[in-house]
C-alpha cells in the first residue's frame, strides 16, 4: 500500500472510523504475532450502540443484514487502526469470518457477508481480497444479527 492510499479511500467512501470498542468479556480486541494481526469479532455498533437486533430470515431482512456486516467491518477497521496506529500498515486482508444469526431456513449468508467483504476490497483494493468463512448461528451477543472477525498481514 502506498502512504495515504487507505486513508484516501476511507475519506472517499465517507467513512470516519469510530473509537475502537473495548472488549466486553475475558479477551483482547486484537493480537499481533509476527506479521499477522487477528481482530476479535466485531458487532454492528454505530455510535457505540447496536444498530439492529434480531435474526436474518426473521426480523432482519437481507438489505439490513448487508448493512450490519458493513458496520461490523467498519468496527474491524477501527480495531486495526487502534492496534497498528495506521491502516497503511495492512499488507493484506488474509481472512474474514462472518457469523450470521438467522432462522433455520435462511440460506443467503454469503450475500450478507458481502457487506464486509465489499468494504474490505473498497478500502484495501486488491490487497483486500481475502479468504472467508460465513456461518449461520442460532444467536449472537446482544441479539446482534451479524459479527465479523478478521486476520490481516501487517508490515
Automatic annotation (TrEMBL):
<protein>
    <submittedName>
        <fullName>RidA family protein</fullName>
    </submittedName>
</protein>
<dbReference type="InterPro" id="IPR013813">
    <property type="entry name" value="Endoribo_LPSP/chorism_mut-like"/>
</dbReference>
<dbReference type="Pfam" id="PF14588">
    <property type="entry name" value="YjgF_endoribonc"/>
</dbReference>
<feature type="domain" description="Endoribonuclease L-PSP/chorismate mutase-like">
    <location>
        <begin position="8"/>
        <end position="144"/>
    </location>
</feature>
<dbReference type="InterPro" id="IPR035959">
    <property type="entry name" value="RutC-like_sf"/>
</dbReference>
